[in-house]
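From the pipeline queue, job 12 of 40. The input is one protein chain; the requested action is below.

Action: predict structure.
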Amino acid sequence: MKDVISFILCIVAGVTIGVVVIGAITPANDTAICDYGKVLAKYAAGTRRTEAWQAALKAAQEKIATENAAIAELDEQLATMKKSGDEYEAKVMAIANRKAAHITNTEAKSKELEASRQAARKTNDKAIRAAVADVAKAKGYNIVLTGNGAVVLYAAGSVDVTGEVVERVNKE
């Protein structure tokens, strides 16, 4: 528990130092905020990507549900059959193979949908960050933070004081 508290305090101190450093190097009029969530919600191409992904997810879920129902029906048929003989054994094997194929197909579709979701998020993020950079350059902002100030969306190259901070912290 003590380690967790120490870790949290280090994070808070790091964020505070970062905000102090950013505040010290940039006048208030050189810094802007951008509500990334609002932009994402109102980004038309991003919304279309999200809707397309959600439609693909819904279609996959419906297909999985249909196959689950078909397998359940086969299981019910199996339950009513005589529990011995070649026909029974063949049916058991056929159902087992169908279930295995269904699991494999479901896992593959899940991975495909996740990759699609990640690609859409990456494309949206890249477009939004490019737009933020364009607006920042046009308006003369050196830094654009998210609405809560937790993430830097854009920083002009001239405001990187990392080297100076490293020198100063190493002097102590």
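Job complete. Residues 2-171 form one domain.
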